[in-house]
Design goal:
The complex is a heterodimer of chains A (325) and B (261). Chain A has 325 residues and is of the alpha/beta class. Chain A folds into two domains: 183 residues, HUPs (Rossmann fold, 3-Layer(aba) Sandwich), CATH 3.40.50.620; 117 residues, TPP-binding domain (Rossmann fold), CATH 3.40.50.1220. Chain B has eight helices and 13 strands. Chain B has a single domain, classed as HUPs (Rossmann fold). In chain B, helix 2 crosses helix 5 and helix 3 crosses helix 4. The chains are: A alpha/beta (325), B alpha/beta (261). Strand 9 of chain A pairs antiparallel with strand 12 of chain B. The complex binds flavin-adenine dinucleotide (2 copies).
């Protein structure tokens, strides 16, 4: 086994930013291990010149599987494509970013290859000629140094762990390959899609975000959050739990599958603080948490935490800020 | 219709957790509980049984030490008809791949139409078990379902992806992991809690399943935990209990920090 394969995901016709960051990190790792790095792209109607540009982010070769079966963004056909790439490429490691599709595809690939898999890696190190990841555990209170015993190792990195640069403008040769698809891998059909950006305000630009989670109790609970946000002159953010439940639009979601935000002030109300939420807001200037459970993980990364009922605290805060305004 | 739900016992999220310095494994001897995310998978199965598939038979499947039977009973009380519990010393120290191999062997034996999992485990938070298990079983897989509808031998699932919501359809048999927003799990009434112990419990060893012990557990783990270190924290956190003045104290803090003027 030799070399590092990086699954580069196509989102909306472009390579996902998260994939580019992982590819650049893979190039650093590859240099330290003396292993070449190849980008694997799966999609439909892909443009050779655009794919070749991955060379500017550290790929020595770009291998492209272009097939209608890969158009939907469903993970299982991508497992087949990666397995085909592995057959000819015999890679030692597979790396991917933290999207839902990439994580599912890497899980399937690991199972098919009998490869160890590390999820949520935040650092990649070359130690003793091998890859040893850092993977946080127990609500980020420890970093486990995870390596592999299997001939192939598979890694899904944490979102935002590796920021992408603009690249060096270089390019790499593109080689197309045809995957062999399995019947069960093509059984999941995409029957509909709702785009996220259709509604809601732009939370990326707000200096203050007041965020609501399931602790609000129901969709009506967002009224108090909206009022508080407007007192601060800010905007409203939300967790996946409330977006999935239909209480608030997806455009306001912060986290792994949502937006990454860095406001001056982030006030988390009724949010437990799952890692998938944290990765989207931990870069905020000041983090405030209001939660009735003193053991909620959100308190581990807040600057100011209040253990109490948001239904009394948030309206009071709104009044106090309004009074100053 | 046969439904299986994979559930995991995890250390109580409200208790302090620790990793054994000798073995680099999570200390699981403290208070344990049913993975809270798995309660949504059980509720989803119960709603299928109350709705489109009244004949559904629900099996709770877990891999864990004998002592995990309390979480199995907790799951049965919430809605299972029977349980399959793989308890074997040789399974200790299993990583994702090892756990998936054991689960897949147990699931294969049951010929289930629908296999449900939680979105993630509250302790290790890996969120990929469904993808591993589905591949080993060579079944269609849908993860992070925000809603499930069952009709005419197929599930239709709405799920969040990075660009919005996809609606996907898969014929059964298939594997689905559910988001924690799919439903509000009901708490089981007392008689259900009392009755759980009397439901059929099957406790199996690796040999019963024909799983080669060298491919699972610490011996078969594809990943190693070679050391532990402390991540950089965020620094000092002030935490106060609200005594009626919390909002005032917060505003004072924000003024001092010059976050508000
Ligand atoms: C692959 C994947 C991707 C994900 N992507 C995202 C993402 O992008 N963004 C995201 O947010 N999540 C994401 N998640 C989900 C994440 O893991 C959590 O499930 C989610 O963040 C929980 O949302 P929550 O904090 O609103 O709900 P909960 O975890 O249910 O927390 C509710 C909190 O409210 C508190 N509370 C209740 N009542 C009150 C009250 N009256 N006053 C004060 N506090 C109260 C409770 O103590 C609790 O801590 C993802 C998960 C996976 C597996
Ligand atoms: C800090 C730390 C980091 C670790 N990192 C890794 C790692 O990166 N890779 C790795 O392979 N192992 C790792 N481990 C080992 C860890 O014990 C495994 O993650 C574990 O075996 C299974 O995965 P999970 O609980 O994370 O699965 P998840 O994918 O989080 O679980 C999702 C769902 O799978 C089902 N499920 C999970 N486990 C069981 C079970 N035993 N029985 C029945 N259903 C189940 C449940 O429905 C659950 O909701 C780590 C352990 C620690 C303490």
């Amino acid at each position: 086994m030799a070399g590092i394969a990086v699954l580069c995901e196509v989102q909306g016709g472009e390579i996902a930013k998260g994939s580019l960051g992982v590819l650049e990190e893979a190039a650093r790792l590859g240099a330290a291990l003396g292993e070449p790095v190849e980008a694997i792209v799966c999609g439909s109607g892909l443009d050779d010149a655009a794919m070749g540009a991955l060379g500017g982010f550290g790929a020595s070769k770009v291998r492209v599987a272009d097939d209608a079966a890969l158009a939907s963004g469903i993970a299982q056909p991508v497992v087949d494509a990666c397995a085909s790439a592995q057959e000819s490429g015999q890679y030692r490691y597979w790396l991917a970013g933290a999207s839902i599709m990439s994580a599912d595809a890497m899980a399937g690939l690991a199972a098919r290859l009998g490869a160890g898999i590390v999820i949520d890696a935040v650092e990649l190190h070359a130690e003793g000629g091998a890859l040893v990841t850092r993977r946080s555990g127990l609500g980020d209170s420890v970093l486990a140094h995870c390596g592999f015993t299997t001939p192939v190792g598979v890694v899904v990195t944490r979102s935002n762990a590796f920021a992408a640069t603009e690249g060096n403008g270089g390019s790499a040769p593109v080689e197309r390959f045809s995957p062999t698809f399995k019947a069960y891998s093509q059984a999941v059909q995409l029957v509909g899609h709702e785009d996220a950006e259709d509604s809601g305000p732009d939370i990326g630009a707000a200096e203050v975000l007041v965020a609501g989670g399931r602790g609000l109790g129901d969709a009506a609970g967002f009224a108090a959050i909206e009022e508080c946000a407007s007192a601060f002159g800010g905007a409203v953010a939300a967790t996946r739990a409330v977006v999935d439940a239909g209480w608030y639009p997806y455009s306001a979601q912060v986290g792994q599958t949502g937006k990454t935000v860095t406001p001056k002030l982030y006030i988390a109300c009724g949010i437990s603080g799952a890692i998938q939420h944290k990765v989207g807001m931990q870069g905020s200037g000041t983090i405030v948490a209001i939660n009735k459970d003193k053991n909620a993980p959100i308190f581990d990364y807040a600057d100011f935490g209040i253990v109490g009922d948001l239904n009394t605290i948030v309206p009071k805060l709104t009044e106090l800020i309004k009074a100053r305004g | 219709m046969r439904i299986a739900i994979c559930v995991k016992e995890v250390p109580d999220p409200t208790a302090e957790k620790r990793i054994d310095a000798g073995t680099n494994r999570l200390v699981r001897s403290g208070e344990n509980t049913l993975n809270p995310y798995d309660r949504h998978a059980i509720e989803a199965a119960v709603q299928i049984k109350e709705g489109p598939a009244p004949d559904a038979e629900i099996t709770i499947v877990t891999v864990g030490p004998e002592s995990a039977n309390r979480s199995v009973d907790r799951a049965l009380a919430q809605g299972g008809d029977q349980s399959v519990h793989i308890a074997d010393e040789a399974a200790a120290g299993s990583d994702l791949l090892g756990t998936a191999r054991i689960l897949a062997a147990a699931l294969k034996r049951g010929n289930y139409d629908l296999i449900l999992l939680g979105q993630q485990a509250a302790d290790s938070e890996s969120y990929v078990m469904a993808g591993l298990v589905a591949e080993l079983l060579e079944l269609p897989c849908v993860t992070q379902a925000a809603s499930i509808e069952l009709a005419d031998g197929a599930v239709t699932v709405k799920r969040q992806v990075e660009t919005g919501y996809d609606t996907v359809k898969a014929a059964t048999p298939c594997v689905v992991s559910v988001s924690d927003a799919i439903n509000d799990p009901r708490y089981p009434p007392l008689p259900a809690i009392m009755g759980a112990k009397r439901k059929p419990h099957e406790v199996l060893s690796l040999a019963d399943l024909g799983v080669d012990a060298s491919t699972v557990g610490a011996a078969g783990a594809g990943t190693t935990v070679g050391g532990l270190s402390k991540p950089e924290g965020r620094g000092d956190t002030i935490v106060i209990e609200d005594d009626g003045s919390a909002a005032d104290q917060l505003v004072a803090f924000l003024l001092e920090k010059k976050v508000v003027a």
